[in-house]
Structures are given as C-alpha cells and as structure tokens.
Amino acid sequence: MLAKLRIFIHILLALKSSIQKPTATSLPEEPRFLPLDLRDCLVALVCAVVAAICWCFLTGRIDSRSWQVPLEYGVKGVDGDAQAVFAHIKAAQEGEFPPFLMKNVSRLGAPYYANWSDIPIVEEWQYYLPGALARWIGLFPATNAAVMLAHVLAVVSFYYAARMLGSNRSWAVAGGFAFGFAQFAFARSIHHLTVTHYWYIPLCLVMVSWITRNQMGEWRKPRYLLSLAACVIIGMQNPYYTNMFLQLVLLGAFYQYFRAGWKPVLQAGGLVVATALGFFLMNLDTLVYHSIHGPNKGALERPYIWLELSALKLVDLLVPPPDHPLLGWMGEAYYGVPGKVKGMVAFPGEIPPSCYLGIVGIASLVWLVVVSVRRLVVEPGRSLPMEAWQVMWILFYAAVGGINCLLGTFGLVIFRSSTRYCIFILPIVLLFAALRLSRKRLDGQVAAVLAGIAVLLVLWDQPPKMVTWPRIAEDARIVESDRNLAARLEERLPKGAMVFQLPFMDFPESPAPGVPSYDHYRLYLHSTHLRFNFGAVKGREWTQWPKTALGNSLEEAVKNLEKFGFSAVYVNRNGLPDRGEGLLKAFAQLGYEDVLHSELGDLFCVLIRPVEHPVLPVGEVR
Q: Max CA-CA distance within the chain?
C-alpha cells in the first residue's frame, strides 16, 4: 500500500514539474529552421533513390511488364476498395476529377451522372496527380507509382524532421526507413491510398514540437509563416491525420499555457485556422452541391459498432502479422489465418493487420516507457518526455472505449477506424530514439554502421514477403480478362452506350453478397466511351431508380432498360447463387442470346435493344 502511495505521489510531482517554468537545461537547443545545406539534400536524395529501389524489389516491380499490373486489383478479399481508388484516378485521367471544382463523372451513374461532389473528398490531389500521370504512362503504372512515392516521401520527410529537431544524419536515415517502410504502409497499399500517404506526419510532429516547446517564434517570422502554409496543405490530406495533428497541437498549446500564457495558444489557433482553410477549400464543391440539392443524410452511414471493431489496441502494436519471416507464429495465433487457423482476438480491426511497429519501433517504444517510468519513480523532479504525453494521449483517444468511442455515443461517428493512429505513435517513438541516440558520444563511423544495421533489420522485419512473378501473373490474368471484355463490348456498342450492372449495388460502401463494394468499376477502368449505371452516390431519389423503375420480372425489367436507353446488361456471376446460369437461360428464353463472356468466366454481358428515343427513369436532374 505504501509503495502504491509513493508511486502516486511521484506521479503528482511529475505532473507538477511538467508545467513549471523550464530551467536552462530542461529543453534542448532550439532546432534549426530548415536543414537545407547541400549535404543534407544529397543524403535525402540518396535515401529517396535507395528507398525506391528497395520498394521495387520488395513488391516485385522490377520490369516494365510487372509495372503494368497493379499491386492489388480489388477483386478478392479486403482489397476491394482498390477499385474505388482506380475509379477516382481514372476520372482524373479523363479530366472529370478537378480539385476544388464539381466532380460529376459523366460515364458513371447512367443514365444520369455520378455525383461525387455529394460526399466530402478531402484528399483530391492524391487522386488528381496520379490521374494526370496516368495520361502519360497508364492507369495502373501511375497508381503503383503513387504508392511507391508514398514510401519514398515518408523516408525523406522523417529524415528532414529528425534533422530539424537535432538528430544526426545516421539515426535520421535509420528512422526514415523504419517509418517509410512501416508494415502499416504495405497493409494499406492501394485500397487505402489516401491512408498510405502518411508521409507528412513527421513534419506535423515538428510543428507540434515547436508549439509544445514554445519555439514557434514570432508571428511574422519565416518559421511561423511556413507552418501556416504547411497547415493549409495538411488540411487537404487525410482527415484522420488532420484530426490527430490538431489534437496534438492543442495539447501542446494547453501545456504551454501554464508556462508562457496565451501566446502559444493563439499561435496554435492560427495553425488550426490555416488547417481548417485547407479542409474548407477541398470541400467547397460539396458545400456548393448541397446548397443546390440539399443535404444527403443517406450517403454515408456509420454505425457506432465500427468504432469498437476498428479501434486501436495496445497489443496490436506489438504483434507481427502472420506472414512475418520469423515471428509469424505469433500473428497466426493472435489474428488467425482465414480458413486455416482461428485467432484469439475477437475483433481484429482493419484487415490486413497494420499496427505492428516493427522491432526497431517496439524497441524505441520500450525505451520511452523505461525513461518515463524512471522519471516517475526515481527522478520525480523531472518532467515526463513530451513524446510520452503524446503517446498516452493517442492511446487515450483511439483505444477501445476511449474518447473516440465516447464521442460516438453522442452520435459523432466520424473516425470509425482509430486503429490508423498507430502511424502517429511510430514516428513519435522513432524521433525520440533518434534524438536520444544522437546525444550518445559515438564515433561517426560506428553510428553509421549501427544505423545501417538498423535499416537492414527494418527491411527484413517490416515489409511483407517479397512478391513473386507467379503472384503478379495471377492478377495480370484477371486484368487482361477484364480489359479484353471491355474492348469487345466497345467494339459491339456505339459510343456512349449504356450498360446496366447486376447485382444492383448502391455507392458507396454497399457490397452485395459475393461482390465487393466497388467491383462494378472493373469495365469502366478499361473502357473509353461506355457508360455504366454504378457510381452515383446513394441517398438521392434519382440514384435509386433501379429499385422502383425496373418492374417485377426479367421481361419487364429488360423492356424498361431498353426504354431508358441501355444497350447491355453486365452480370457478375459471383453475386448470384447459381453463378448466373438461371439468368442466362431466362435471357435466352426472351430472345437475348447475344452474350459476351469474360475469358475467366466470372463476368458476362447480354446485349439488348435500346429504343431510338429513350426516356429518363425519374426525369431531369439538375
């Protein structure tokens, strides 16, 4: 009992000391503004080249043939969202996804259009830029390049962030590779492309450090003005990361309020306003669309249960994935292997698992815990490291039953996958370790050798098993089958012909049994002039017309489709109990025997006969 009381007293003393005025030695020297000397630029360039080569080797993208195949195609398992990413980039490739402006995609949502401005899309640049590149090199190579760039930028961003905070070059490089090649990035990949682009988080942490340590500088100084500009860009990125960045900024401002008054709080407020400006600009088209058509409450439905199913768990940070080269048995026991091993965890969160910090990250976290406990128990006069407060706050907010879940009980079900905040914990602990190691009096060559060993350990430990050509060839066959079917269909149908897709699925996040949420985009990706009914945002009356306007029999449905101007019916066999055999026979009995089958036999298209003067199902839509 006395021991527990002593620890409690030490905690109170640590809390008290953490808000006292800093002594002359309590803070490190003020970090440099920007490490832009020639040597740093050369090191960053070398890191970028090495990271790109390593990525190509690890993913099997080592020749032009493999680059034509996407990292994941989205027709099986949890990577189904990849088709949505491809569709957004395809729309940008065709000039129908302009940043800031209305996004009405003419080849989707037939016979109307796909009203993508009806839902907020903040990360527009992450689709637009690959789309612009796709005009030159093709859709899938451009998407692969976007993923590779996410890894490379993460390495370089961490390097610069560590240098700005005072780390030496060797440990900054090692931390950069541990961050850029995080297991999180490989797990998110294409199907969560905007989540994979977490590269700027270390730079966010630099600004958080400046606020927390009261080192932001005066209002008109270059450091603060550059931070404001960076915050506008951050507001245009993934909302999950924007949310946690602002939380840490305000946490640091609250800390400084007790030490330096209102000035840091006002500076933090400026960063919040700048970030909100970027967020507002990215959602301007949605605000305008809703002002014209009214709000769409049925577009995105987020039940509370997802806040718990996909919440962050501390153990997830420590357990490697089932395909780990040495410790995979731990991942199999914990997560299980579909169809083989039942895992011990009831709610595995987002699949594939992505929270594993890696051996280097776990070692850095343990180091932070040891230093923090030592200061609580042995050195109660010293404040806890800033990084300890940040990690504790993230866990307090994102863990099962944390603040995010609490907010969800009041209806604020916004950030349903708080497991993603593990990617904030990783750079925090890596920066802590890099700065600590930089203070050690090690010979420069010794530090470089140790950092090199750490990089090799990262490349062995954190990425998944290397992708081989047979795995790439399997995806290539599916891509080629879809491409050939789209080409044959375009040969048979006039320009602008409309294709109705079965089973009928709403957009977004509305899968059918056996068919992922965005599988109906497959032929759109490979066509140039066909129009498809899938892709219009649900919740509007005019997007729900197939539920009411097709009738009660196949014959009536086909006649109505012809009346509306459709030229073909596309069927995904995986969405029908008998794989569509009964539907094929029914079409044949009605006299529709002109059928195109995909080479792999999973899709077919029945050609029908549209009327010369079609009508719209529910009339004109503004």
A: 90
